[in-house]
Amino acid sequence: MDVRDESKEETTDERAEEISVETPEADAAEQNRTMREDGPSWPDDIPLEVNPADAVEQNRTVDIDEDDYR
Fold first, then answer.
1. What is the pLDDT of residues 6-38, one digit of tens each?
2. What pLDDT does 15 receive?
């Protein structure tokens, strides 16, 4: 018996495209935006005392038109 159902994959994709009525329009647009391929790369050498997430954040380059940098 095959437990994989091909129609299940299709319904999952359809649900991902649905947007709740309560979702703000800007948030929905941001969530559906494709990620940049030229994003920050993971550093090769991180000292043991450094938080890896902080090391990546320190290497981040902010684009001129990026208004929502936090």
1. 555 544 444 456 778 888 888 888 887 776 666
2. 47
Closest CA to 61 of 36, 45, 40, 41: 40
Among candidate residues 47, 46, 45, 41, the one with its CA nearest the CA of residue 60? 41
Distance, CA of 21 to CA of 16 (rounded, Å)? 14
Closest Cα to residue 63, out of 33, 34, 42, 40?
A: 40
Q: Which amino acid is it at 56?
A: V
Question: Which tokens is 15 given?
Answer: 């649900």
Cα separation, 12 vs 14, whole angstroms: 5
